[in-house]
């Protein structure tokens, strides 16, 4: 697979002789005008509750404050809205929750009413489940989506399917908002990991530089804490025993078999199934045992499952094959979808990972103009892709914008196996801001990765 050279370094944050205004810079000869005064109803700067318990009012204030600051302040003024001490408290609290969750989260939407006894079966209520695809730092579209779908509540569960940061200009605010929802409603909001929640991708596609610009001398600290939080994000979920969700999709079996000659752990034979002729589908038991706490999921070695789950793509051809376009992960065919669904008595696979830029290069697959596609229809059920970032990417080097819609999936009781797609257009106008990466030169669709620069430890 051809590898790119090392990506160009991101532009440095402004030095002391410049001020950042909506992503641009001005010299001290034209000093930054006085900052606008926030509305009286906003509680700014945001403070962490003394008892550490978030409320819906705190969440509403966070949403409104991020929205207002994105439209009225320079990115470097974000600490005046969200101080680093509050960042530390939020990320620490959320990280502890996320790291305790298993690799594949079991989501049970059948809830008992808080006013019912355990024996009162008739009072059992089933929650609706909303599955969200890539959002890529498009804060205003995310805020619209959550309002449109209805806020997380006891009868509405959200599953976010990864790729919260990079490419868009508000990846940090997007991620922090989702962490706040997780802390507020830990059993109604689930955050899964995407391939962009990694050191490699965030160093190339803008998030690292975004953090440095917004938090200045505290930027390295904030970025490091975000990476540690990324490592704790679960890889997949099973919803109501019927639906498997993951950012990329399915994964290979990485079997460990005893040597015929020797006994003991030191002489185990590792069969990585790296040859496409002997690749086989992995099991949920193997997924549960994979080591997800890696900055960059490896493309070689014994811990291949996280990379597969985050980077793989469906194929129209049967079988499993290495994903040569991306250089990591797999391509899997309809027969593998059927095998996985049938084995675990599932009806639906929901994945994300492919926007309009990636899909235009994929022969035989529908584009992402409507924010979703139905990729496999097999005897046991379906495989669908959902992408929740409309008019993506925010910064486009193409002559004509893709102007795609975003979408999210609603799963309703009692069966949860009939995906209802809700399409939506981008919020306009977006606040003016400059990109945090060289979008004209950086690869558009995660192809031909510079694997030598990825961290595998």
TrEMBL record:
Family affiliation: Belongs to the PPP phosphatase family.
TM segment ranges: none
Coiled-coil zones: none
Domain Serine/threonine specific protein phosphatases: 192-197
Enzyme Commission no: 3.1.3.16
Keyword set, alphabetical order: Hydrolase, Manganese, Metal-binding
Lineage, uppermost ranks: Eukaryota, Viridiplantae, Streptophyta, Embryophyta, Tracheophyta
Catalytic activity, reaction form: O-phospho-L-threonyl-[protein] + H2O = L-threonyl-[protein] + phosphate
SMART domains in the record: PP2Ac
Matching InterPro entries: Calcineurin-like_PHP, Metallo-depent_PP-like, PPP_phosphatase, Ser/Thr-sp_prot-phosphatase
Taxonomy, superkingdom: Eukaryota
Cofactors required: Mn(2+)
One Pfam family, short name: Metallophos
Enzyme class label: hydrolase
Biased composition (Polar residues): 16-26
The name this protein goes by in its record: Serine/threonine-protein phosphatase
GO molecular function, one term: metal ion binding
Biased composition (Pro residues): 1-15
Organism: Lupinus luteus (European yellow lupine)
């Amino acid at each position: 697979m051809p590898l790119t050279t090392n990506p160009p370094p991101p532009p440095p944050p402004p030095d002391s002789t410049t001020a950042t205004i909506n992503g641009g810079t001005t010299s001290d000869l034209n000093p930054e005008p006085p900052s606008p005064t926030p509305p009286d109803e906003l509680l700014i700067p945001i403070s962490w509750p003394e008892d550490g318990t978030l409320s819906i009012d705190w969440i509403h204030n966070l949403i409104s404050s991020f929205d207002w600051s994105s439209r009225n302040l320079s990115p470097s003024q974000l600490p005046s809205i969200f101080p680093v001490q509050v960042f530390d408290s939020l990320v620490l609290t959320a990280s502890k929750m996320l790291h305790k969750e298993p690799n594949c989260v079991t989501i049970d939407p059948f809830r008992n009413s808080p006013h019912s006894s355990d024996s009162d079966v008739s009072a059992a209520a089933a929650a609706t489940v909303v599955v969200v695809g890539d959002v890529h730092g498009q804060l205003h579209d995310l805020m619209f989506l959550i309002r449109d779908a209805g806020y997380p509540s006891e009868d509405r569960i959200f599953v976010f399917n990864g790729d919260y940061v990079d490419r868009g200009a508000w990846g940090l605010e997007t991620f922090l908002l989702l962490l706040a929802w997780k802390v507020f409603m830990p059993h109604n909001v689930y955050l899964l990991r995407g391939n962009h929640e990694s050191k490699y991708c965030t160093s190339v596609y803008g998030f690292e530089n975004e953090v440095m610009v917004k938090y200045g001398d505290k930027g390295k600290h904030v970025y490091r804490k975000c990476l540690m939080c990324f490592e704790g994000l679960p890889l997949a979920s099973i919803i109501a025993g019927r639906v498997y969700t993951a950012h990329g999709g399915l994964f290979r079996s990485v079997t460990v078999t005893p040597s015929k000659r020797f006994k003991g752990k030191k002489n185990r034979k590792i069969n990585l199934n790296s040859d496409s002729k002997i690749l086989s589908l992995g099991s949920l038991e193997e997924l549960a045992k994979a080591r997800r706490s890696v900055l960059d999921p490896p493309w070689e070695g014994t811990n291949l499952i996280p990379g597969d789950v985050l980077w793989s793509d469906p194929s129209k051809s049967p079988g499993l094959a290495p994903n040569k376009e991306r250089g990591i992960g797999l391509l899997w065919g309809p027969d593998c979808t059927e095998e996985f669904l049938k084995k675990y008595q599932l009806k639906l696979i929901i994945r994300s990972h492919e926007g309009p830029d990636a899909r235009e290069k994929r022969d035989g697959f529908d584009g992402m103009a409507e924010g979703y596609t139905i990729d496999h229809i097999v005897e046991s059920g379906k495989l669908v892709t959902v992408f929740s970032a409309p008019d993506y990417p925010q910064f486009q080097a193409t002559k004509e914008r893709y102007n795609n819609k975003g979408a999210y999936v609603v799963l309703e009781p009692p069966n949860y196996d009939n995906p209802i797609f809700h399409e939506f257009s981008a919020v306009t106008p977006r606040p003016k801001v400059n990109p945090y990466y060289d979008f004209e030169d950086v690869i558009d669709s995660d192809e031909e990765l510079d694997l030598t620069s990825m961290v595998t430890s």
